[in-house]
Amino acid sequence: RFVSHLVSHTMTINLPSSCASAELPVQPPTTMNQAASTAWLIIQAAEINNQAAIAAQQFFQTATLTQLPTQTDTETQLPVQAAATNSHAAKVAQLPIQTDAETQLLVQAATAAQLPHQPAATNSLAATEAQSPVQLKKASSRSKDIITCEICNLRLKKKNARLHLKRKHQENADPVASYRHLRSQCVDAKRGVFAVEKSFNGPPEPVHVIKYTSSLGHRLECELDRCNANAQFANRIGIQRFECEHIQSLQFCACATESEGCLSESSLDVLVENFRFSQQRKEDLLKKQQEATKNDAPLSVLLTVGGTETTFHVSVFEPKTTFASGRVIVTHDSKTNSWHCPCIDGKFSCTHKATAKWHLFEKMPKMFETANIPKEDFPCDEAEDIGSITDDEAAERMIKYLISHKKIPAQLPETLVTSSRDAKALSGFPKHLIPSEAACTECGQHALGEPQLISATAKVLTLSGLVTGISTYRKTCLNCDMVYRYQDWQDGVHNFDDHLLLSIHLCLLLRNALQTHTSVRRIIEIIELTERESFPNKDRILQAYLSFEGLTDHDYLYVCDSCGYHPAVVVMGVHNEGGFSLPVSEIPNPPQNYNGEVNAHSFWEAVTMEVISHGLYPPGRRNPFVVEPTYHNWSPWIGPQTRHSDILLNTESEKVCMPDLSGGVDQYLTKEQLADEVLNLKLSEIKKLCKKCGIDGRGSKMDLVLRLQDEMDSRAIYNQVFKKVRGASGGWAVITCPCGVVYSLKFNLRAERPSDFADLLLSWKIFPNITVYDNASGLVSHINERCPQDTPFAIHEGTLLDHTAENIRQAAEHNLKVNLPWLKRRKQPEDVGGHPVTGSVEHYCLSDNFHQSNNKQNSDILRRIEIVPELAETLSSQCAEQLFADMRKNNYFLNRLTLSAHMFLQRNILHNYNVRKNTRAKEYM
């Protein structure tokens, strides 16, 4: 059967192109019968693959071979092998054979096929080649010694093929041994912290590894995420003590040497004297060294592993870092004079970089002598800004001077904007920016000192790229030490930190981009791609733009030109999605004597000062002007002509003890309202929310929402759902006129309540006649309870008519109409104490049709806007919702900002939004 099978099938056997020793077999004699010819071909194939020899030999002996020529060549003598090892021969023997005499038969070599039972991998090149399934094909080059790798298509010499396969394409690496391991060095012997080379190949970079063994326990940990992931996987499958190649290499680490001791303060003084460090930096470094000494850990260790002749690595003590080793590695390239620390961008400074500089300066002072670093440029490149103000009191004086004397006009001359736009092409920017002040304005017109160079490599950012080589200067009063820096907008530039400057034209472009919901980062990326230039850190550019807006003389009137300072009709709402990350549990409680009042002018002045102060304090340094969120110092914004005084109301501290939702208090966010907002989430997000709340996550979207709603009686579940839907803070609330212009703005620390809008309305100079709010009855109940003696909603509790059954029935049948003619024409005669626009003292709190489901009382049907013909014709109660839909497009960048930056920029965006609304309204008149 075997012979018949071979005869009835065809086979084409090819030689591998990369096998140089294989030769084409000789054609069988034509006088040979068919069976003998077939057996003869199998023998030739077996000459190349010994594994097929036994099967071919047995078949050859059974066939009729009387006409086959005698073979005396040793190549035809097949070695006898055990049948148990010939598992692959059966596969070869079963291949079909073609008996066409006109076709030249080629024998396929199976040496590249991997055997079922292979020996363990060794370091020999022969074993590597035998185990590798990669074939190297002959290149089409004229040279016979050049071949091409089929994996990476690399052209290389044939003699280097084995070494190439071993180095580049061998997956099974040799185990760590005495002759093959990663170099390591002990950094902290007490805690078992070592520095180990990152890999066998590639650039020599060290990583921190912990191997600590004591009677209390063991700790094995590597800094690389890849090794940690492998260790976690090994732990899950039962391997308790997994060791990566870095930890394994520690067994060949040399013994720990004694610590070099503390760094001397004298060398640090030299760095301060040479303007390498500021005085504040010196104090920070000394405190850091004291902390390291207290923890019995070396402050800095120069690593001998992973470095080169021009690259140095220093392990720096940092117990508060996110790295498990409690240390970070700072890298210095003396060739390019660059410093790198994983905690901050390469262009800015940090305590770790300063510690490494201190260490290298003390141990290798010649490195700093030969480095070609101008004194005024060293701070700029490394952000050790000698132009920064080290005294907080001096910084406060300087910021207040800039705000009072260096304000930028809100409406800039068109010629200035044009010249700023074309300044790069025309080389219009001055190369030396010197303060224009000649005498001190603080201490009686004393003459200022000579200009001091801050940086000779400052950059001006423009729409068409960077302008480099700008020199910035400052002046100091010799009498009171008041510092004056360049801040003259007349030259078409805005100075941020004496190293980074923005053209006025670019600042206006960024302002308009924010009005079209385009972030500063995206605009800078567009310029970089267009001009093919690399700009400074984009977060730093955003801070520079915010400082420009902080110095711009905006009035922030928040007023509509049509409705005036005191609109008779207002619409209120809250933007729940516009929030900032804020751990409300960490907000301190207000003082016991806090009466719910806050100075709006002082609060927003502090926010503006923080925005400007970023140009005086380099990144990484403590900024004393940061505004911390507190209940007693958190103010809304109301236009100066609309509010009754600078003292506004803020009673958010009362939210700390919220009543139970099951008590039926309708002024809080109900379960139904929260469930409606959950429906807006994606199904995957709802499933994650259910899993976090311990609720079954199987089923449709509606099933999951209903399960969450049923469990919201629990305060813990309610808080989880609320946090997911509305974020960490409570969003921001607004009061608008029917035209859509914003009059009041309040950033909520906690979830929205009617008390937030009560604070705003009671802070107004004149209470509006008509208030539209989605929870009207809750607002009226809160104000009546808060102001029992002088409540504005004394008539029918803010409804249009008395709460009789007949009025409610007619309103339900849409047959009820209540005319308020003073909304169209001023009431004559006026009521005593009436509104200046309408002349009426009546006050109503209404709700629109969109939020009718929030009204639970039967009498709330008397609050419908459609009952009043004067309002139903002209009032768009959705103007607040339209504003939120427009501002929702800014959430992707606003919600990622810091607290003060978010508040300042949102107020600025809404101010420009109001200005644009008023401008368009005037154009249509």
From TrEMBL:
<feature type="domain" description="SAP">
    <location>
        <begin position="678"/>
        <end position="712"/>
    </location>
</feature>
<protein>
    <recommendedName>
        <fullName>SAP domain-containing protein</fullName>
    </recommendedName>
</protein>
<dbReference type="InterPro" id="IPR039598">
    <property type="entry name" value="HMGXB3"/>
</dbReference>
<dbReference type="InterPro" id="IPR003034">
    <property type="entry name" value="SAP_dom"/>
</dbReference>
<dbReference type="InterPro" id="IPR040648">
    <property type="entry name" value="HMGXB3_CxC4"/>
</dbReference>
<dbReference type="Pfam" id="PF18717">
    <property type="entry name" value="CxC4"/>
</dbReference>
